[in-house]
Structures are given as structure tokens and as C-alpha cells.
Amino acid sequence: MELLKKIKLPSLSNLYLRLNLQSKFFVYFAGLVIIVVCIVSAAVFYFQKQMILKQAQEKAFSLTRTLAYSSLNAILLDDYITVQTLIDAMSDGQDIISIAILDTTGKVIAANTPELRGRKYSDPLTKKALSTDTFILQRKPSSNGLEIWDTAVPIFKLEERIGTARIKYSVEDTYKGLLKTILGIGLLAILISLALSYKFSRSISKPIQKAVHLAEEYGKGNLDLAVSVNSHDEIGQLVLSLNKLSKKLKTLIDEKISNENLVMLGEFGSYIIHDLKNPLSGIHLLADGLHRKLPADSPLKKYSMEILLASQKLEDFIRRTLDIARSTRLNIKPVKLNNLIEEAIQEVSFASTPIVRKYDYDMPDVMGDHQLLLMAFKNLLTNAAEAITDNGQISIETKWAEKAVIKISDSGIGIPEDRLTSIFRPFFSMKDQGHGLGLAMVKKAVISHQGNIKVESKKGEGSTFTITLPGIV
Q: Which of 105, 205, 211, 282 could share a disulfide with 21, CB 3.0–4.6 Å?
């Protein structure tokens, strides 16, 4: 006993809290159904029992009264053979224990057991049966504990009582049959409810488990994961929202990385200013002086030219890097976007590529930096022209929808889907000779105007860059 006291057994509530969600749903629904089935079964058993008792009572009264009326003439004629035949015919019922006809003193005139004939009864039930002038039903337990019904109907000749018809019944078999039926139906209902509870709990918990797994994977940084749910209820909407959230988080993270790269580029630009600009200018001047002094037929002439071109390329790279790195102060003034785009078109070489214009001529002026926006549109148009290899075209569309929207599309080679999130990062380039700074400068210009830029592309079909500017900075 002391050992049992020391052992702390978990309570049912603690055990329930330790279950997983599916088990909790199963226990809840199964327990609820079992309780309902038990209550309904008990109610059905009670009302059915009352109905059966009433029917049995009516049957007992009818059978005993029939015995009394049918045996009247035979008793008067002392025709006990007829009485015995009548009793034997009624003794076929399985619920009948005994049938007897008593005289006024309690002596057995005839019975379903011939050995009882002539026997006299003086027990309290018999005395009460002999003293009543109407139908009487008495109950008593038998030796094995079963309930026995003792029914009695007086037999009268005119107003003179000449005997009593008496039949004893057992209704326990009826109870047992009813109980077995109710228990069988209840057990079947419980088994079916358990199966349905399991299926129902699984249908609820499985999508929730998927949602939990999805959230865990997002917590680990796996934002590419998505799950499908067939249901359109609140759980299905939750999983759908998580799938949308992952895409949005991935976009925000990519933008954050891109912005961090711009900041890092700014820091990197400071080092370039101090460590590369001056030495590179000196190299360029020395190379230019050397190139001028060398005779035109000198074999060293081509090497000096390569040094000049390389230093010029490096200076251009540093300049463009510093353009991104500097914290630009915007020169804000009203800008006519359609005119600005036309100016950018004039400064970019498109060879023979046709340009389709779809301008919104009712668009109001936008407040912005003319030079910074011009640089952004020139870079986008240059990329569009370089993306077209065969016959193709460039489409430019402007419209006003509470904000300025500019779409620049090309029918070029397109951008692979796995690179769409990286094209705005500094130093990321898909060109062999590119620096990876053009689109980074475009994004910085758009962000500086508190705008937004996005790209849609399909490999082999072309790309569309959409810029949205608020109009007021």
C-alpha cells in the first residue's frame, strides 16, 4: 500500500492532454456517441419494457378470462375431461408456468399437471385470489429469483361463485430477449460510431497536421514547400493562406536580401573610392601617354590599347557601382512620363526592332527625379533590345490607376523561372559581358521614388517589367 501511495498515476485529464489532436477528436466524438447510445438504449429498453408488460398483462387477463368462461359449463356438468383438455391446449405457451382451476376452498379441480388435482392451497396469494370478485394480477419472485405473474379470474354461476381460474406466467424470457436485442443494436451502433469517429477525426486532424508541418518547414526556412487540401472549410482556407504566406515571405526575404546587397554595395563602394579610383585613374593616364608615344607600327601598340580599354571598362564599372552606392538626393519636379520614355527611346540603340507604344495621354505629371527615372528606363529598354535575337518587338504601355503604371515588354529569350528572384541583385548577370548592375540601379531608382517593380517572364516568350510610381514623393 505504501508503494502504491508513492506511485503517482497520471489523471485522465493529463492523459487526455498528452494525446495528439486526432486521438483527442476520436476520444471526444467516440465518447459522446457512446454516451448518447447508452442513454437512448436505456430509454428504449425502459419504454419497450413498459409496453411489453402492458401487452403481457392484457394477454394474461384475456387468457385467464377465456379459461374461466370456457370451463364454466364443464364444471357445472362435472365434465373434467373437457376442462383438462382445455387446460392442456393452453399449456403450449413457453411463458406459462402452470394452469389450474380451484374450487371455492382452494382445492385444485383441474391443472396442467395431473398430480396437482385434489391438492389444496392456502398460501396468501391463493387466499387473495379466492377472495377477489374481479380479475387480479399478483407478482412474486420464484425460487431462482425470476418474477412470476399470478393471474386469477373468478368463475360464477349467476351470482354464485363456483371456482377460480388461475394461470402463472414468467415474463423474464421476454425481458431477456428485449435486453439482448437492445444490447445487440447498441453494440452495433457503438462499433459504427467508432469507425465514423475515427474517419471524422482523421478528416479534421490530417489537414491541421499538414498545416502544422507547413508552419514548421517555414520556420526552418523551407518556403518552397506547399501542400494541397481538398476541403474548402476554415482548415482548407488556413492551409491556402499558409501557401500564399510562404510566397509572400519568400518575396519579402528576396527583397530584403536585395536591399541588404544594395547597402553592402554602398559600403563596398566606399572602399572602391579610396582604394581603386585614384590608382585606376593613374593607370589610365599612364597607359594613354604610353599609347600616344608608341609608333603606329610598334607591336606594343595593341597591348597599350588593351590596357586603355580595360582601364576604361573598370572606370565605367566603378562609376556605375558608385551610382548605386551613393545615397542619391532626388531632384523632385513634375515629370511627364510619356515624354521621358520617348527621350529614353531616342538614347537607346534598337537596331531594327519595332517599338509599340500604348500611352495614356491623359496621365497627369508625376513628381520625380528626371535623370534618375531616365536612367532606369534606358536600362530597361537596353535589356529589352538585347533580349531580342530574332524578329520581335518591344511594347511600352503607360496608364494611370490612382498610380502611374509603366509596362515595358519584349518578345525576347525570356528569363528562367529560377532566376526571376535574383535579377535585381547587384552583380547578378545573365550576360557574358554584363556587370549585373543595370537592374539593381533600376530597382534603386524605383525604390527611391517609393515605387515598386516586378517582372513576369517565360523562357522563349519574353519578359514584362512593370513599374508602379505613386506620383508624389
A: 205
Give residue 1's pLDDT band: very low, low, confident or very high (50, 70, 90).
very low
Contact partners, residue 214, CB within 8 Å, separation at least 6: 225, 226, 227, 239, 242, 243, 246
Distance of CA 193 to the CA centre of its chain: 22
In a domain, 323, yes or no: no
278-293 and 301-325 helices, crossing angle to 10°: 160
Q: Are 185 and 41 in contact (CB under 8 A)?
A: yes
Residue-range definition of the domain harbouring residue 126: 21-176
> In a 3-state reduction of DSSP, which class is residue 198?
helix
Domain end residue (candidates: 149, 176, 203): 176
pLDDT > 60? residue 270:
no
Q: Following DSSP, what letter does each residue of 134-194 receive, concatenated? A: S-EEEEEE-TTS-EEEEEEEEEEETTEEEEEEEEEEE-HHHHHHHHHHHHHHHHHHHHHHH
Phi/psi of residue 90, each to 5°?
A: -85, -10
* Domain endpoint, select from 176, 210, 230: 176
Q: pLDDT digit string (tens) for 381-424?
A: 888 888 887 788 889 999 998 899 999 999 888 888 877 777 77
Length of the chain: 473
- Sort 217 into a burial class: Cβ within 10 Å, 0-12 / 13-18 / 19+: middle
Tell me the average pLDDT of the chain: 76
Q: What contacts 23, CB < 8 A, 6 or more positions away?
A: 201
Torsion angle in degrees (nearest 10) through CA of 410, 412, 413, 417:
10
The CB density around residue 377, as the number of other CB atoms within 10 Å, is 25
Query: What is the C-alpha to C-alpha distance for residues 140 and 131, in angstroms, rounded to an integer?
Result: 18
Query: How far is the first Cα of the chain from the last one, in angstroms, to the nearest whole number?
Result: 82
